[in-house]
Design goal:
It contains 8 helices and 8 strands, in the order αββαββαααββαββαα. The protein is of the alpha+beta class. The protein has a single domain, classed as Homing endonucleases (Endonuclease I-creI, Roll), CATH 3.10.28.10. The N and C termini lie far apart (45 Å).
């Protein structure tokens, strides 16, 4: 019974929430039951990823089984070829999500317990970065490293939470792009939120974010930058 399931705030749960909000979704749909003919509601937490993010989906699967005691599988989709699906039944977990202040939506809104504890906030950011983030190193002569998070909405709650916990500036901007595909013009738009890795944020990123990152190229780029540009912040 779900009401007997005891789930406490943890770094693992915070990472799970970050991935669910960035690369996941909560779906609800109605089905007709074959045995009774009655209609029922199916609620699922879903991820849809490509092969490059498969390690993140695998970690998400492991945490789902560990935290929520669910048996779940990752399925290869026939089309497109490079696509994998994760599905977990969540109808009976909804009261637990509400109790834990977990909102699975396109908005990056950390639970209150994540905002109140830096180690949880770091693992939550790692989940967002693995899901919808990027580590950008620019200006080769005087390197600068930005952690960018992409979404379809302005993320003011997350912005305030980063400023509060990391004590750094956070920037948001609306971006657009026009591209050609198969003779068709495709217009896209999104919001980017980013903050910079500096002497003020390097220690937090190294101690609280990097250990939880699953995508190796993001983890390595962030770790290499900090070790090269801010070694004194991680010497201990």
């Amino acid at each position: 019974m779900v009401q007997e399931l005891k789930v406490e705030p943890s770094e693992d749960l915070a990472y799970w929430v970050g991935v669910a909000q960035s690369d996941g979704c909560l779906t609800k749909y109605t089905i007709k039951r074959s045995d009774s003919g009655k209609k029922g509601t199916v609620v699922q937490v879903r991820l849809h990823v490509s092969s490059k993010s498969l390690c993140m989906a695998q970690k998400f699967k492991e945490l789902s089984e560990k935290i929520f005691l669910r048996t779940v599988k990752i399925h290869k989709r026939p089309k497109p070829l490079d696509a994998w699906d994760f599905k977990m039944g969540a109808k009976r977990l909804l009261p637990l999500f509400r109790k834990l202040d977990i909102l699975i939506s396109p908005m990056f809104i950390p639970p209150i317990w994540v905002i109140q504890e830096p180690k949880y906030f770091g693992s939550y950011l790692a989940g967002l970065i693995d899901g919808d983030g990027c580590v950008i190193v620019k200006r080769p002569k005087y390197p600068q490293c930005a952690v960018a998070l992409y979404s379809g909405s302005i993320q003011d709650v997350l912005k305030k939470s980063i400023i509060k916990t990391l004590g750094c500036s956070v920037f948001q901007r609306y971006q657009t792009r026009v591209s050609e595909l198969g003779g068709k013009t495709i217009r896209g738009s999104w919001y980017t939120l980013d903050f910079y890795i500096s002497s003020k944020t390097a220690e937090f990123a190294f101690d609280r974010i990097i250990p939880h990152l699953q995508l190796k190229h993001k983890k390595k780029k962030l770790e290499d930058f900090i070790l090269r540009r801010h070694p004194s912040t991680v010497e201990n």
